[in-house]
């Protein structure tokens, strides 16, 4: 069987306390692949040092072969996209895999040009449809054949439909979700009190966490026997705490801090309803994790991601606002235990059938096998003296850091050194 012989290298971004879909997927996907006999290794580009790189440390402790290029705060030349591409090529050349997966990492995707030319298929992963990731479609599906991917995996059908119109080189595009573990046994749920939960990034962009926190305070105030819990961390944490202190004063609305992906399902087992009131999503991992634990999703009806998991009235409830319609949905579930239990069973069954890690890994291995069979024979490659890349995409200004000219680099370093002395 191909999985027993397969070598896969996954390259991703990393940093201090980094969490969210792309990072949680890496933590889950690697161990799930390893269980099938695949040899998995990881390359990370970090915004911090080794000791502060969350995903790198997590997987290293599990015994995986992990390499990391840390951030160099003063040596700017070592943090350029070109330098990171070169490092990636060097690592792949030393330990060539059968498949190279670029997990939404700019240098890894650019390195794919030379990796693919050596007979190693390169797969990109598209996690969301925000502007930050539209550049991947532009640069690696439609801009030039030499930088095009061997295949692209989208975590939702909506993302696949969006990239279909920008695929002149007919790069294979597959829909494979991030997947979730499914607990084998669940305790019966008592609906008194009815516990709502949000878990994830505490951000206003996309998640609209302040509006969600206010919705929690209002629903707990208006619907008898309801409690609300918030897990996570992020830039809007202080706003969340302020809202709970003011609008949620003396109400059962609780901020419970950050919980790792390894522990989050344990915190879900005594909860009843998972709430997402986001402006947009990819295919939320936390929603799959919660549904696998029998939680009923109540989510804002948006075009992206969520409707692929939440079928209104079948696997959960979709609401049209964060106010009266949301409160009405919670009230229905609080008053109708039969409806709650039916949705709970359906949600868990749907995720088990379509989004369990076993299902996800099987889809990935099928894709990898087809790409390997179609690839040219593997051969060694030379790392070019000069890494030539396309011009910086307008969507990536400030993110895609290219190598500056020598005069500009010297001026920047003098300014940075002077600012450092002022701070001292």
Give structural notes:
There is one protein chain. Helices cover 41% and strands 16% of the residues. The protein has 424 residues and is of the alpha/beta class. It has 14 helices and 13 strands. Helix 3 (81-94) crosses helix 4 (106-117) and helix 7 runs parallel beside helix 8 (237-246). It has 2 domains: 2-179 and 359-396, Glycogen Phosphorylase B (Rossmann fold, 3-Layer(aba) Sandwich), CATH 3.40.50; 194-355, Glycogen Phosphorylase B (Rossmann fold), CATH 3.40.50.2000. The longest helix has 18 residues, at 337-354.
Unreliable residue stretches: none
Q: If classified by CATH, what would the architecture of the largest domain be? A: 3-Layer(aba) Sandwich
Average residue-wise pLDDT: 89
Profile the largest sheet. 7 strands, parallel
Give me the secondary-structure topology:
Blueprint lengths: L6 E8 L6 H15 L3 E8 L7 H8 L3 E5 L11 H14 L4 E4 L3 H12 L4 E5 L4 H13 L7 E4 L2 H7 L9 E3 L18 E8 L7 H14 L3 E8 L3 H10 L6 E3 L8 H5 L4 E4 L8 H8 L3 E5 L16 E3 L4 H12 L1 H18 L2 H18 L31 H18 L1
Parallel strand pairs: 1-2, 1-4, 2-3, 4-5, 5-6, 6-7, 8-9, 8-11, 9-10, 11-12, 12-13
Keywords:
424 residues; alpha/beta; Rossmann fold; 14 helices; 16% strand; globular
The gist of it:
This protein is an alpha/beta fold and 424 residues long. It has helices at residues 21-35, 54-61, 81-94, 106-117, 131-143, 157-163, 209-222, 237-246, 264-268, 285-292, 324-335, 337-354, 357-374, 406-423, and strands at 7-14, 39-46, 65-69, 99-102, 122-126, 151-154, 173-175, 194-201, 226-233, 253-255, 273-276, 296-300, 317-319.
